[in-house]
Amino acid sequence: MTPEFLEMHQIDYVAHDDLPYPGSGSVSDIYESVKKLGKFVPTKRTEGISSSDIIARCYGFCLKLLSRSEEEKTSTEKKRSQDLRSKELEILGKIVV
């Protein structure tokens, strides 16, 4: 994460646990540059809770919702589905290739 990357994506802070995460080559901590910039916010781990698992479950829920036919969805699910599709288009429109 370079200062240019943070600026380009308008990232003010990066929050992660304070353990060093080695990168490729001789990089001892991938968050070192962010820490030096003062844009790193250390978080505390909670035993038994994985943010990666939570994200994966949410993503799985979204995929299941989007794959169901409109007739099978409640009015709330239809609204959520529509919002997800709009957000997806918005994100895809911002990707620079």
Give a structural overview.
By secondary structure, the chain is mostly helical. It is built from 4 helices and 2 strands. A two-stranded parallel sheet has the order 1-2. Helix 2 links the parallel strand 1 and strand 2. The radius of gyration is 18 Å and the shape is elongated. It starts with a helix and ends with a helix.
Topology at a glance:
Elements: H1 3-8, E1 14-17, H2 32-37, E2 40-43, H3 51-67, H4 75-94
Parallel strand pairs: 1-2
Concise account of the structure shown:
Helix content is 51%, strand content 8%. The protein has helices at residues 3-8, 32-37, 51-67, 75-94, and strands at residues 14-17, 40-43.
What are the secondary-structure elements, in order, as H or E?
HEHEHH
Main sheet record: 2 strands, parallel
Mean pLDDT: 87
Q: Work out the count of structural domains.
A: 2
Terminal Cα span: 18 Å
Tally the helices. Answer: 4
Helical amount:
40-55%
Strand segment tally: 2
Low-confidence stretches: none
Q: Which strand order spans the largest sheet, edge to edge or round the barrel?
A: 1-2
Silhouette? elongated
* Rg from Cα: 18 Å
**Which percent range describes the beta-strand content?**
5-15%
Structural class: mainly alpha
